[in-house]
Specification:
The chain has 364 residues and is mainly α. Helix content is 73%, strand content 0%. α11 crosses α13. The relative contact order is 0.15.
C-alpha cells in the first residue's frame, strides 16, 4: 500500500510527456453525444418546470456540461503542452472568446429588440450582468427568466479566466489546489446552512455566503472534470485496464441523476455526482458498448454539436415566450420546440461557424 502511495506521489509531481492514446484524436464524438443527452435533459427540465411540476431536472443536464467542460478544457491545454512544450494562454483565451461570446451577444442583442417590442421588463442590470458574465452573483434587480441561464455561462467563463493559468503555472500542485478549493466550498456550504455562527458574525456571514453564491453551483463539477483529465495524463488513472460492462456505467449515470435531482443540497452530492459523470466519460472513451454506441449515435452527436446554440436560445421558446399571446398556438410546446431547433441550427451554421473557423486557425 505504501509503495502504491509512493508511486502515486511520484506520478503527481512528474512532468507530463505524452498524451494518453484515447485522447489523441482531435475530436471525441462521444463527448458530443454526452452533450446531446445533457441538452435534451436541460430542455426537458425546463419544460417540466414550466408546467409547474414539482420535479426539476434541468440542473442535472447543466452539471453534466460542467464536468465535460472541465475535462475537455484541461485535456486541450495539456495536449498543447505536450505537443509544443508550452501553453499560450493568450491563444487559449482568444479561442474561448470566439467560441462562446459571439452567439451569446447575438442573443442579448436580439433580446434587447424583443424587450422593446414585447415589454418583457428586462432591466439594464440583467443585461449588464449577463454581458459581463456575472450572472452567478446575486446583484439587486438583475434577475429575470430570459437571461437567467447565463449563470452557468458566467461560472464557466470565470473558470476559464482563472484555472488555466493555475494549471500552467502550478501544474504539479494543481491537484492540491483543486482539492483545497473543493474543501473550502464544502466547508463554506456547511457553515452557511448548518451553523448559527454566521447569525452573530456579519463578516463571516458575507464571506461564506459569498463563496457559496459565487462558487457553490458548478465549480466543483468543473474542477473534478478537470482533475479527471489531469490524473489521466499523469497515468494515475489507467482506465484501459478496467473491463466493466456498460450496465455498470449506466448505473453510475442513473446514480448521478438521483444524487443531483433528489439530494442536490447534500454535502457530498456534487462530489459523488461529478465522479460518476467522470466515470461515464472515461468508460465511453475507452469502451465500445451499448452506452458508447448510444453516445456516438449520429443524431445524438448532432444534437450535441448544436447543444451550445440550443442552450443559448432555449429561454425564448420553453417558457414565457415573448410572442405567447400574439397568435393562435403561439405557446404550443411542439411549435416552440420546432422553432428552437430551427433557430439553433441557423445560428450555428450561419453565424457561429464563421467564428469557429477563426478559432480553428489559432494554433493549438
Amino acid at each position: 500500500m505504501f509503495k502504491q502511495l509512493g508511486n502515486i506521489k511520484t506520478k503527481l509531481f512528474a512532468e507530463i510527456i505524452s498524451i494518453p492514446e484515447i485522447l489523441q484524436p482531435s475530436h471525441l464524438p462521444g463527448l458530443d453525444g454526452l452533450r446531446g443527452i445533457s441538452i435534451i435533459i436541460v430542455v426537458l427540465g425546463h419544460l417540466i418546470w414550466a408546467d409547474n411540476l414539482k420535479f426539476f431536472i434541468g440542473y442535472f443536464g447543466v452539471n453534466i456540461f460542467f464536468v465535460i467542460s472541465g475535462f475537455l478544457i484541461t485535456t486541450l491545454l495539456l495536449k498543447e503542452k505536450v505537443k509544443t512544450g508550452a501553453v499560450s494562454l493568450k491563444n487559449f483565451y482568444l479561442r474561448r472568446v470566439l467560441k462562446i461570446m459571439p452567439v451569446a451577444y447575438l442573443y442579448l442583442f436580439t433580446l434587447v429588440i424583443l424587450n422593446a417590442i414585447f415589454k418583457l421588463n428586462i432591466t439594464n442590470g440583467s443585461f449588464t450582468t449577463a454581458a459581463l458574465y456575472l450572472k452567478n452573483i446575486p446583484f439587486k434587480n438583475s434577475e429575470d427568466w430570459y437571461t437567467g441561464h447565463f449563470w452557468s455561462l458566467s461560472i464557466e467563463e470565470q473558470f476559464y479566466l482563472i484555472f488555466p493559468a493555475l494549471l500552467v503555472l502550478y501544474k504539479n500542485k494543481y491537484v492540491f489546489i483543486v482539492i483545497s478549493i473543493i474543501l473550502l466550498i464544502k466547508i463554506s456550504e456547511f457553515v452557511a446552512f448548518n451553523s448559527s455562527i454566521t447569525e452573530s458574525n456579519k463578516l463571516l456571514h458575507y464571506v461564506v455566503f459569498g463563496i457559496v453564491d459565487i462558487f457553490g453551483n458548478g465549480t466543483i463539477e468543473i474542477l473534478i472534470g478537470s482533475l479527471t483529465s489531469l490524473l489521466l495524463f499523469k497515468q494515475i488513472i489507467k482506465f484501459d485496464r478496467i473491463k466493466i460492462d456498460y450496465w455498470i456505467s449506466c448505473i453510475f449515470l442513473v446514480g448521478a441523476f438521483l444524487l443531483d435531482t433528489f439530494f442536490y443540497n447534500n454535502v457530498l452530492s456534487s462530489i459523488v455526482f461529478s465522479v460518476c459523470i467522470s466515470f461515464v466519460i472515461l468508460n465511453n472513451l475507452y469502451q465500445v458498448n451499448f452506452l458508447g454506441k448510444l453516445l456516438n449515435n449520429k443524431i445524438i452527436v448532432k444534437i450535441g454539436l448544436l447543444s451550445y446554440s440550443i442552450y443559448i436560445w432555449q429561454q425564448l421558446f420553453l417558457k414565457n415566450q415573448p410572442w405567447a399571446h400574439s397568435f393562435k398556438y403561439s405557446n404550443s410546446i411542439i411549435l416552440n420546440l420546432i422553432g428552437l431547433s430551427i433557430v439553433a441550427y441557423l445560428s450555428y451554421y450561419l453565424f457561429e461557424k464563421y467564428f469557429l473557423k477563426l478559432k480553428n486557425k489559432i494554433v493549438t
